[in-house]
Every structure is written in C-alpha cells, then in structure tokens.
Amino acid sequence: MHESNEQLHLVNKTYDEIQIGDTASLVRTLMPEDVKLFAVLTGDFNPGLADPAYSESGMFREVIAHGMWSGSLISTVLGTQFPGPGTTLIDQSLHFARPVTIGDIVTVTVTAKQKFDHNQHVIFDCVCTNQEGLQVVRGTAEVLAPTEKISRLQDSHRPGVSIDDKHERYTRLLARVKGLEPIPTAVAHPCDQESLKGAVFAFQEGIIEPILVGPEAKIRSVAEEFGIDLHGIRIVNARHSHDSAAIAVSLVRTGDAEALMKGSLHTDELMSEVVSRANGLRTSRRISHVFVMEVPTYHRPLLITDAAINIAPTLEEKMHIIQNAIDLAHIIGIPEPKVAILSAVETVNPKIQSTLDAAALCKMADRGQIKGGILDGPLAFDNAVSIIAAKTKGIKSAVAGHAEILVVPDLESGNMLAKQLEYLANALTAGIVLGTRVPIVLTSRADTAETRIASCVIAALVAHHNRKTGNV
C-alpha cells in the first residue's frame, strides 16, 4: 500500500463558459488489478469477466473489463475536467461496441453538444476508443453544469490498492486433486521441520501416500519436537542422506512409489542417484525443472524453465526443456500454452546466443520438432508478460503479454527470476522435475511446507496422467 502526493490542479468550466464543440479527453490503460478492483467495488464477479480460467473458454478468449469500467471513465472526465468540479450527472446513455481487454489503452472524449439555459443542463457526446482507434463505447451524458468558478490545487492522497488472494490461490490448487487417489511418494531424508511438515501435510490433505526414507530416529525426533503426527505413515530406515537418496530412488524403480520428493538433503545428492545410468530414473527425454507459479499481479499461470537442473543448456537441450514444460502445461489444464523464449532483447542479435537459440527453436516448432504450444522469441521479459510493453514496442504476437511458459537462457537467470516472483511478488510456487520415469518434487531447503504441498499437487497430477497413459 502506498500513497501518491502529487498535486492536481482542478479548474472547472461554468455553464456560461461552455461552448458547443468544446472537448476534453482522458487516457487510461486497463490493468489486471482494475478488473479485480471493479469487481470488488461493485460485487460483479461475473466469471466471464474476472475469472481468467473461465474467460479463456469464453467468447473473447481473454479477460475483459466490465462494461461500466469505461462508463465510469466518462464520469471521471465530466467530474474532474469538463465541466469539472461542481458538475452533477443527470442522465447517461451508453452503447458498448466491443470489449476492452487487459492492456488496451482507452481514450475517453466528451464533447459539448447542446445547452439548455432554463436549467443550466448540458448534453455531451461521449466516445471511448482503443489504441487502434476503434470505438469501444459511445453514448451521451446530460449534466447540471456548475455556475460558480472553481480553481484550486488539491493534494491527491490516493492509496495504491492491491488484492492478495494467496490463500484462495492455494485452496484452488488443492482442489485440483480433490477426489483423486493419493500417490505413493518416496520422500528422501525429511529430517527437518519444513520438509517433514510438507510431506505429512500433503498426506493429511490426501495428495500423497508418503514413504519417509531416512534415519528413523532422526525423523521421529523432529516429529516429536514440532508436534508432527506420523500416525499411519511408513518409514524406511536409512543411515544417512546419501543412503536416503539411493533407497528412495530404488523404491521408485521397484514400483513401490510413483513419485519422488526431496527432503532436507542437498539437490546434488538426490539428483546424482536420479541420473545414475545403472540405477537411476532417466528416460530418452532430457531431465529438466519447472517452476509453476501463480503470481497475483499476472492474469494467468506462469511456468518457468529451467531454473534448477540445466546450468547452460544447448539448443537441443532447450528443445527437450520446452517440450517437458508444454507437456506439463497440458496436464495442468493449459491446452495450447504460449511459450516465450526469453533474452535481453526482442530482436535476433548474432552476438547474443540466446536470441539465435530462440529463433531456431521457433523454427523447430514450425517444423513439428516441438509440439503442443505456440512459441515466440526472442522476447525480453517485459514483452513476454506485459501487453502494454509489447504494444509500445509494436510487437504483434499471440505470445507477447500472454506468456504461460517462460524459457530462460540459463539456470542463473531462471533461478533469480523465480525467486524474485516468490519473495517480492508473493507468488504461490511449486517446483517439479520432469523427463524422468516419475515426477520429482524438487524444492529448496528454505521452502515452506506450503510450497512443498503445492509441488506435491503438481506431482500428483503428473502421476495420475502417467497412470492413464501407461507411463507408470
């Protein structure tokens, strides 16, 4: 929450000063939070407008503004600019010609059309156009014009309002696996509070059937210290973290577990067992990691890859990384994900390898080497997630401003991007490894139990998909 201390110079036009043909305008860009706030203020939670998931299947295939959002902007012009302070709205008639979508730049223009001396009423023509010059709203407004001159400087202490619905997002995610059978999951070395809580709480939510692999005495000691109930949960004793990783992977290979979950051991310890050519969980696909994020300031889910496994992937490795992410997007309900291949710029530059890779990957998608998604790149981050930035730079793309998968150039940039969204933007985060025989919940040792449970939801959805397709 923040406040703006800028000063507004409010000057009205009295009835006598208004001339037929005088005009005033206001320009406003529709942001995702505008739709949410308008719904909160009016109580109009029409899912066709405010719900991104519902909107995707609707007539316009994206989130649109409430019609009266544009109408309220007309009122803003009349009340603050022309005629300005002292104006009273008497009557208004509007026709909605086309929808206003996220990122549209709306210009509102009011023009004095007719005056009535006997009661100081003025009729205005009102037109709202988008950035392409197309009418979105037209109509008329009748006002009682002010008769006294008002001219003053006014501090505008306008609070910046944001809506954080993280708990709602978390609850909605848990509902995705409601009614599904819990997935047997080998949990490698859950020997601290958060990793043990994550596995046990996911068990209590009915998401997984955990098999805790680690030093049994240590696991029970942690449970007792933090009041974690282990009743009904199987424990497989292991000597140390390396042993925990090896046993957990063997449980998957024998079919006792259909998913693998990292506990409090190092990622390298677990992944060295996973990638072992003799006893690991490799497939023909390159192993990669995907962060699945619900960001409150973005209008759709974001999948970020790869930010945990592949340090500096080659072109061929990026092809596998993208296909893994697209396949996951299908599983979680995104039928044709929009894939943005990120770089520092949005043009191909021979000196920047990531732009060359992006161009090649897009052509590979054209040739059917990558399937199931819409690719575009190179795209800078702002162009990928902001329709405003994309439109400002003249980028016409089905992906720009609407990306659902962000393919990063390397692990460092991806990891920093994902952590920034988690810690600075309050994103709900899940992490999963794909390209292996079973999904792997791979979280940071600093991650909360909530993040671990969210990751278990994604892993469970993948595991159930594997059952249906015979990939168990």
List the helices and strands and how they pair.
Elements: E1 2-4, E2 7-11, E3 23-29, H1 32-42, H2 47-50, H3 52-56, H4 67-80, E4 88-96, E5 105-116, E6 121-129, E7 135-144, E8 151-155, E9 158-160, H5 166-174, E10 183-188, H6 193-204, E11 208-214, H7 216-226, E12 234-237, H8 241-253, E13 259-262, H9 267-274, E14 288-294, E15 302-305, H10 315-331, E16 338-342, H11 353-366, E17 374-379, H12 381-385, H13 387-392, E18 405-407, H14 411-424, E19 428-434, E20 440-441, H15 449-469
Parallel strand pairs: 10-11, 10-13, 11-12, 13-20, 15-18, 16-17, 16-18
Antiparallel strand pairs: 1-9, 2-8, 3-5, 4-7, 5-6, 6-7, 14-15, 14-19, 19-20
Structure, explained:
The protein has helices at 32-42, 47-50, 52-56, 67-80, 166-174, 193-204, 216-226, 241-253, 267-274, 315-331, 353-366, 381-385, 387-392, 411-424, 449-469, and strands spanning 2-4, 7-11, 23-29, 88-96, 105-116, 121-129, 135-144, 151-155, 158-160, 183-188, 208-214, 234-237, 259-262, 288-294, 302-305, 338-342, 374-379, 405-407, 428-434, 440-441. With 472 residues, the protein is an alpha/beta fold. Among the domains are: 2-160, Hotdog Thioesterase (Thiol Ester Dehydrase, Chain A), CATH 3.10.129.10; 284-435, Isopropylmalate Dehydrogenase (3-Layer(aba) Sandwich), CATH 3.40.718.10. Strands 12-11-10-13-20-19-14-15-18-16-17 form an eleven-stranded mixed β-sheet, with helices on both faces. The protein has a five-stranded antiparallel β-sheet with strand order 3-5-6-7-4, with helices on one face. The longest helix has 21 residues, at 449-469. 42% of the residues are buried.
